[in-house]
């Protein structure tokens, strides 16, 4: 049970999220289905809070002495990611959000995706569904990578 708790916590950490939780679960030899469920839940717990409060907190703190630089960086990252999504996606903005979160690259997880959705004033329910779908895709990709499937494919070709 303690290892599942760690999977939950790891999946809640910004920038690490499910991309780090799944490899740890595999490394620890935990059963896959419960580990994925715990990691997805952990990755999604912060999502509504990010959408509802992160932008307000970041805007409040951007001019504070000790935290201002980091808060400004977070706002700029969310704004940049959001504008990039908006420019590339057009009417397919929610599909773009899904892919942005789903492709497991650094800085493209649920935290950044929901911050971008908040900054762009996207619909909460649609954004949450797109982010959840992206988290599931990222989890599947990380699971396959952690199990060595991609390495096996390259060896076979």
What is the radius of gyration computed over CA atoms, rounded to a whole number of angstroms? 16 Å
Strand content: under 5%
> How many β-strands, per DSSP?
0
Poorly predicted sequence stretches spanning 5 or more consecutive residues: none
Output the helix-strand order.
Answer: HHHHHHHHH
Tally the helices: what do you get? 9
For the report, how would you describe the main beta sheet?
Answer: none
Give the fraction of residues assigned to helices: over 70%
Number of domains: 1
Q: Give average pLDDT, whole number.
A: 90
Label the structural class: mainly alpha
Please report the distance between the alpha carbons of the first and last residues.
40 Å
Shape: globular
What report would you give on this structure?
Helix 1 (2-12) packs across helix 3, helix 4 (47-61) crosses helix 7 and helix 7 (110-119) packs antiparallel against helix 8 (124-146). The protein has one domain (2-156). With 157 residues, it is mainly alpha-helical. The chain has helices spanning 2-12, 17-27, 32-44, 47-61, 68-89, 93-102, 110-119, 124-146, 149-156. The longest helix is centred in the C-terminal third of the chain and has 23 residues, at 124-146.
Characteristics:
157 residues; mainly alpha; globular
Topology:
Layout: H1 2-12, H2 17-27, H3 32-44, H4 47-61, H5 68-89, H6 93-102, H7 110-119, H8 124-146, H9 149-156
Helix pairs in contact: 1-2, 1-3, 2-3, 2-8, 3-8, 4-5, 4-7, 5-6, 5-7, 6-7, 6-8, 7-8
